[in-house]
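Below is our example:
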Amino acid sequence: MLPGYSVLRYDRADGRKQGGVLLAATPHFELRQVPTPDDINNINRYNFELVCANIYVQNRFLCACCVLHISPHTEGNEYMLMFTLLEKLCVKYKNNVLILGDFNLFSDNDYVRNYYEYFLAFYELRRGRRCTGRGVALAAAAADEALQMVDAKLRPPAVAVTGAAAVAVAIRDISYQVLPQEKLKQWNFNKADFDKLHGSVMNIDWTELYLLNDPNLVLNFFMIK
């Protein structure tokens, strides 16, 4: 790492060869890690890596940034746990949230993919598939080689550091099925009272819901609540 860079990273200790996450910032920025629940801190229990931080410039809050990776073919309950953490972040910081990650949705079922689309629509997140780095001084990583061994299907992003600038090599874009536009138009949240809705949803115990894998059971559970 270059001198003065702030770094937040999660490394596995159980030998699994997965994609890990790292967030690095130039000296211009200050990273303040956002704590996660104690059980999530034991990263070896799950198939996803997650690190979140508040980014400040001269003691002024800029945004909350979350970097994540979830392995292909991960079970739906782990996706739901990950979405729960992201939703809490979105509720707390509202429109000042930046999420960077590889969701590997192409390998999961329709329910997870549809929930991802719902997640974007409900929290009014704008999705982007390309990061040019123009005007951005945050670097995802600054290393000459992989931080740890990974398999051929999960090659890490290659990042070259020249002088004081970090230039990221483009990562192969993996496309996945998304909902048709006509279906997305059916989700209209323009007249929703989000503050009241957030409070109501947060007060409900959804633990049992995250353990269900059948969409019909999930729908029945939701209607009962």
Summary: Confidence is low (pLDDT under 50) at residues 132-179.
